[in-house]
Write a structure and sequence with these properties.
Pnp Oxidase, Chain A, globular, Split_barrel_FMN-bd, Flavin_Rdtase-like_dom, FMN binding, Flavin reductase like domain-containing protein, about 30% strand, alpha+beta, 2 domains
Length: about 250
């Protein structure tokens, strides 16, 4: 089949979100300027780059056209946190997706325990095995069709990372232990348990270190012509074009 966006696709359910899968969940915690804690999941979340590490999440406006509390809180206070959404916490993630009144605490509604962050004034989900403490960088408004089409894209720099020791195997985060969940289309979710590894053939170690996300190796690159070659290879090989995309959005 083929259809142009904005026209009738002829299917009983809209297929667009079901095409872009799986989508990591941005389970974002914030605190308002008045001290109220907030926690909500967003299905448009990803990392942008790794040295320094940046992440983004996008939030559609409410049916009334207003910004979500998460966006307001992050911009007003300058901080937010990301908590890994896991299969074990799937029900809690779903509960925090409810639209509660401002000032109501999603942590309490979902029966989650709060944990103090070390560098930012935002609570973390204690039960989540991986958490990021983030400093707000900017918000980009992407206009869309009212009332919910307009989206706020929030970018933040990761200041600190928490990883539970019991999800590490041989120095790596073990996907079989974290069991992250991801959004699919419609009302469907996926849980990630199986992985496979591939390395690009014919590439040098510096490029592989970059694809692995090694900040240590990146900082060890000498300022030579070879470094420029590696950077060029990286940009061509990363289909997401994370750093280039960030530059275009500025």
């Amino acid at each position: 089949m083929f259809y142009e966006t904005g026209t009738d696709h002829g299917l009983p359910y809209d297929p667009f979100k079901a095409c872009v899968v799986p989508r990591p969940i941005g389970w974002i915690s914030t605190r308002s300027s008045s001290g109220h804690d907030n926690l909500a999941p967003y299905s448009q979340f990803t990392n942008l780059t790794f040295d320094p590490p940046y992440v983004l999440f996008s939030s559609n406006r409410t049916p009334s056209g207003a910004r979500k509390d998460t966006v307001n809180n992050a911009e007003e206070t300058g901080f937010f946190a990301w908590n890994l959404a896991t299969y074990a916490l799937r029900e809690e993630v779903n509960i925090t997706a409810q639209q509660l009144d401002p000032g109501e605490d999603e942590f309490v509604a979902a029966g989650l325990e709060k944990e103090d962050a070390r560098k930012i004034p935002v609570k973390l989900v204690k039960e989540s095995p991986v958490r990021f403490e983030c400093a707000f960088d900017r918000v980009i408004e992407l206009p869309g069709n009212p009332p919910m089409g307009t989206v706020d894209i929030v970018i933040g720099r990761v200041l600190a990372v928490h990883i539970a020791d019991n999800v590490l195997t041989d120095g790596k985060i073990d996907i079989k232990k974290t069991e992250p969940i991801a959004r699919l289309g419609y009302y469907e979710y996926a849980v990630v348990r199986d992985t496979f590894e591939m390395r690009i053939p014919g590439t040098n170690k510096a490029l592989l270190d970059g694809l692995e996300g090694s900040a240590k190796a990146n900082r060890g690159l000498e300022k030579t012509g070879e470094e420029g070659k590696v950077v060029g290879q990286l940009k061509r090989s990363q289909s997401a074009g994370a750093e280039a995309a960030l530059g275009k959005m500025e």
